Amino acid sequence: MIFGELEHLYHQPLFNLISQSRAVHLQHWRGEEIQRCSLLSIKTGGCSEDCAYCAQSAHYSTGLEREELLSVETVLTAASRAHSHGATRFCMGAAWRGVHDGSEKFDRVLEIVRQVSQLGMEVCVTLGEIGPMEARKLKAAGVTAYNHNINTSPEFYREIVSTHTFQNRLDTIAAVQQSGMSVCCGGIIGMGESEVDRLRMLEVLSNFDPAPDSVPINCLMPMPGTPLAEQPPVDIFELVRLVAVTRIALPKARVRLAAGRTRISREGQALCFFAGANSIFYGDKLLTAKNPAADVDVALLRELGLQAES
Predict the structure, then answer these.
(1) Which member of 51, 265, 291, 301 has the lowest number of beta carbons within 10 Å of its beta carbon?
(2) What is the pLDDT of residues 20-42, one digit of tens each?
(3) pTM
């Protein structure tokens, strides 16, 4: 979609917009099903990048304890637990700028992926920048999806990070697409960007070829010690509007409510599900940020008449 189309959709009366997005959602998805994904940080802290939202950046004093790459056994235990609790996608994140073929850490990640892929879940990783060779090897090891968010508009991107460029993000996404892995790509709202920036981000996403398989929409979790530590919460109706327009622009993608759900009311989450969100991160921690407890999510879905995708 082009920007003008997205802008027209976004600025409709809210009920008109979510009625349209609901209709699109029901054309492509079972409306009562929500995918549950589990996310594990397999290497925490000490990242060389200066992303203004991130507690894992070595540029900021956030009090986060740095951890090295987890063992295969530790990751496999966490993955098995997530599977037993109903997760159908297991996501692993590492705080690196990127990985390179032939390095010891990349070889260790490949072995982790091989083991986790035997459990019967979708396997998603986010390891920073990769090229065509790394993408092909990850796919061969069993990765089904690679997460690499563009986070915001091309214009606003330089306001939140200086150690890499928006084009660097697109280059990694192109390598993932060429490998045959599906792309998981979305953004973060609440970083000080405008609504125009959010729609420009969505314009870029909706013009990927092929389109992203899943689009995580993160609401900023302000982390003490980072430049964005004092950012206020996102207005709930702005979030619902963005979810709805994302559903219309990318009808076949899973739209995932990702970080920030602890700052969204139950009623706000319900509106997001009605508007087209059909995936959540499940478990009490997302990398370094808090997430609603699993039993809280189960209770909410039950109350709304929704069920976990099997």
Answers:
(1) 265
(2) 999 999 999 998 999 988 889 99
(3) 0.93
